[in-house]
Amino acid sequence: MAAPLPDGDRQAAELIAALTRRGETVAAAESLTAGLVCATLARVPGASAALRGGLVVYATELKSRLAGVDAGLLAEHGAVHPEVAAQLAEGARDRCGATWGLGLTGVAGPSAQDGVAPGTVHVGLAGPGIRTVRTLALDGNRDLIRTESVRAAFALLGEHLGGNRRSPLA
């Protein structure tokens, strides 16, 4: 018998299964997670049925150039802002032709960025009639903050796939 999947892999498997059942797809624009959302989803056998792709937009100017985030917003508020996460999600959805888009931006640490404390993360979701952002205040080292950001993105999408405010994946 295979060993149980780590929590993030279990969430990813459940998301891929739900998206596949619904005939829907997902894409991500990732800053602080640098592709970890897509990499975790891609670990699931059959992920190609639901995972369209992603954008790693670690550098601020790439958020605008590749994901379509408003350059004025970035200039005024910096890269770590709830509206940036929302626009990243919309950009991923649009540019990858997906049903759902996830956008993640934040500070993994160890230092603050543009006056924003480490552990501050914004997760955006864009989909059919949905545009929402969840803000997190996470504790821990870089790896933990990045991993928890992925889990939060999966939970947010799972809530909307499940049609209720509590994630079927939690």
Overall structural class, as computed from helix and strand content, comes to alpha/beta
Largest sheet: 5 strands, mixed
Total number of helical segments? Answer: 6
Largest sheet: spatial strand order: 2-1-3-4-5
Average pLDDT figure: 93
Give the uncertain stretches in residue-range form. Answer: 1-5, 164-170
From N to C, what is the helix and strand string? Answer: HEHEHHHEEEH
Rg is 15 Å
**Percent of residues in beta strands:** 15-25%
Helix content: 40-55%
Number of separate strands = 5
Distance between the termini: 24 Å
Shape: globular
Give a written overview of the molecule.
This protein has helices at residues 7-22, 36-42, 60-65, 71-77, 82-96, 142-162; strands spanning 26-30, 51-56, 100-106, 120-127, 130-137. With 170 residues, it is an alpha/beta fold. The longest helix has 21 residues, at 142-162. 44% of the residues are buried. Residues 1-5 and 164-170 have low confidence and may be disordered.
